[in-house]
Design a protein that fits this description.
Layout (H helix, E strand, L loop, with lengths): L7 E7 L5 H9 L3 E5 L6 E8 L5 E6 L11 H10 L11 E7 L3 H14 L3 E6 L1 H6 L3 E2 L1 H8 L3 E3 L8 H7 L16 H16 L5 H10 L3 H22 E2 L3 H14 L4 H19 L2 H21 L4 H18 L2 H17 L1 H15 L7 H7 L3 H7 L6 H10 L9 H11 L3 H29 L20 H35 L8 H7 L1 H13 L6 H9 L6 H9 L7 H10 L11 H13 L4 H11 L2 H28 L4
Parallel strand pairs: 1-4, 1-5, 5-6, 6-8
Antiparallel strand pairs: 2-3, 3-4, 7-9
Helix pairs in contact: 3-9, 5-9, 7-8, 11-14, 11-20, 12-13, 13-21, 13-25, 14-21, 16-17, 17-28, 18-20, 19-27, 20-27, 21-25, 22-23, 23-24, 24-25, 27-29, 28-29
Amino acid sequence: MSESSIQARIALVGNPNAGKTTLFNSLTGQNQKVGNYTGATVSRKSGTFLTPHGHQFELIDLPGAYSLQPNSPDEKITRDVLVGEQEGEAPPDLVLCVLDACHLERQLYLLLQIIDLGHPVVAALNKMDSAEGQGLRIDPTALSEDFGVPFVPICSATGRGITQLKHALRHPFPRPPGRLWKGPAELEEAIGKSTRASEEAGACHPVADGLMNVAKTGSETEKLIQKIRFEYIHRAIEAGLQRPDEAALELTDRIDAHALHPFRGWAIFASLMLAVFWSIFRFAEIPMGWVEGAFEWLSGTVSGAIGEGDFQSLIVDGVIAGVGGVLVFLPQIVLLFFFISLLESSGYMARAAYLMDGIMNKVGLSGKSFLPLLSGYACAIPGIMATRTIPNAKERLATILILPWTSCTARLPVYVLIIPLIFAGAFNQGLALFGIYALGTLTALIAAKILKPRLGQTEAPQFLLELPPYQKPQWGHVFRQVWERAFAFIKKAGTVILGLSIILWFLNTYPKSESEDPTVQQEQSFNGRIGQAMEPVVAPLGWDDRMGTAMMASFAAREVFRSSLAISYATDEEDGEALRDQLVASTRDNGAPLYTPLVGLSIIVFFIYALQCLPTTVVVRRETGSWKWALGQLTGMTLFAYLAALLVYQGGKLLGYS
């Protein structure tokens, strides 16, 4: 479809986490373009779609915003686009406002602000299935009458109501209702004068300009306008929303008496996290065996079909071993994602954010930093991008700088390989994994405390959080979340990890040695030479040259650590037991065991603290706008990881441990 066939431009707006991106993908499908706004690091995503009436529209996915009084770069972009002040972006013809039906009263403030701008508006009541599960009863007709715009109930994740939403996007669009609320006579007079002045100055949206200029005249005026808007919303909500019955609210209150208790709350939180990490080791064993068996069968089949030689080695030892060695951990990663999604869907994760806010205040952060940090346990990159919702610039920067110390899933293959070398039994291994995550999180918070005065932040920002009622998990939502995150992991294994595994195979295969001894081949290969150069640096940590090579390779992607070790030790990467047996059997030149529990602990500590993810460094540079912060973070975390691992190994030796 050509650009000239587009009949109108629709801006998609909404609060963060209202389901806006899911709706955008549902409407536009594959017809999407991604770029950056002129002069900004914020990404611009647009796409086209057809309505049942045959109209073709361009849909622009604006960054999430709580208000049009901007407190973050994302909110400023959204405000500027809607009022026609964004360079290179024309004002939209219609605004499609996505509202989270579970938190409707809070979300309606943004809708009322958009109506004040004078745009035609359609409101999409998203997550209606979750709202109904919480006992909320919403009347779209009553809300439409009060706000003068269509309200369409949808569930963007399942596709419910999408056709009805497209029908509501009729062209030409309905006339905007105009400002719905009225203030005292003196306020109305000031708004009128300001609007007339904007008209004379040739403003694109004189009504919006006039109102915003009046709001800027002083904090008391702005507070008065906010108060009048909320009063209007409260009156509209009385007719359009019925809340859960008293029994449901009483149950939530009874649970929260324990879940939010200063002592019992933390005991519950710690017990839940410990149960999650124990389950990762206990219940993933069988499906991991299936994955191992599948890749062993594939390796044997391919080996039999392809004659011996470098090509067979490339496919079997490079491609299959490289990808299989990462995907073998998919069951554990799926379990981690499942439990996190389950806690989010049940309403408990909001309580965890409430508990963490008390601790974060002591280190200069707020509960708003908790959700980006929580995202970092899956992957640092979306976690860093999620900091855009933090209004305080210093808090946002501090969160970005400490976030990689929350252990992402890319570290999990390393932990799962090394922990059984130190601890026996699923309970002890789960406890060790819990301790690893706790240590990374605790260090991140201490680092925030140290950074706080250096960044010029004198006090923790305020944090307001709406605690939803407890509810039965929305299983469809849970499984979609797990699938999306698992697919992202599989995609990475099939692209980045595959490419790096092939490179590692090449470095370990060439140049060729005349000897048939694999040890000699390893020493003479490019990999071996890199390891020999690295050995003086890593020897104080208790590592050998092969460990140094694996560590260097893992800076591109941590998951490659296991692939590199398997190639260096010429063992089957999919078989974790075989690889661990090789590590245990390895000796130093004097015959002493190489991989002792102390060495394993040194490896784990290094991986807790090292920023071994170059894509993360690129994203940090983009989000902070400075290579100084990005490279400083990479260098600082690497040095800290080295010194921490050095302290663990050398300190342990002094205490008589091996």
